[in-house]
Amino acid sequence: MVGIVREPIVLTELETITRTEVEKYLAISYTSTFYTILDDAQKLYAVVSVPHLPRPWPSRVVVMAQVVNDKVIIIEDVTDKPLVDALMVNGGVPREKIILAYAGETIPSP
């Protein structure tokens, strides 16, 4: 059987910063398990929370962002420490490169 050989994915600086900052939202909880979703091919990065059984509440996306062209689109953020702030302060990403889709900011057409 012959496997598929794929070229390695090379991340841009913006993708690396976004991936790194989203990963920092991974948490430890007594009531839920947190998982990171790091999809470099789609440039989509997220942390989800899945409550332990029996599930008293549904699973949820804690934070999710995708890099499209030269913008970071924050799709979801339910934290008390917003990803937008982390990207700007820790990553040096200018605010004009960040779109808060969860807050109703318009996503530009491709």
Describe the structure.
16% of the residues lie in helices and 32% in strands. The protein is an alpha+beta fold and 110 residues long. It has a single domain, classed as XisI-like (TATA-Binding Protein, 2-Layer Sandwich). The protein has a five-stranded mixed beta sheet with strand order 1-2-3-4-5, covered by helices on one side. Strand 1 and strand 2 form a beta hairpin. The longest helix is centred in the first third of the chain and has 11 residues. The N and C termini lie far apart (39 Å).
Q: Could you tell me the CATH topology label.
A: TATA-Binding Protein
Going across the biggest sheet, name each strand in turn. 1-2-3-4-5
Domain count: 1
Mass-distribution shape? globular
Produce the secondary structure layout.
Blueprint: H1 13-23, E1 32-39, E2 44-51, E3 60-68, E4 71-77, H2 83-89, E5 98-100
Parallel strand pairs: 4-5
Antiparallel strand pairs: 1-2, 2-3, 3-4
Write a concise synopsis of the structure shown.
By secondary structure, this protein is an alpha+beta fold. It has helices at 13-23, 83-89, and strands spanning 32-39, 44-51, 60-68, 71-77, 98-100. Strands 1-2-3-4-5 form a five-stranded mixed beta sheet, with helices on one face.
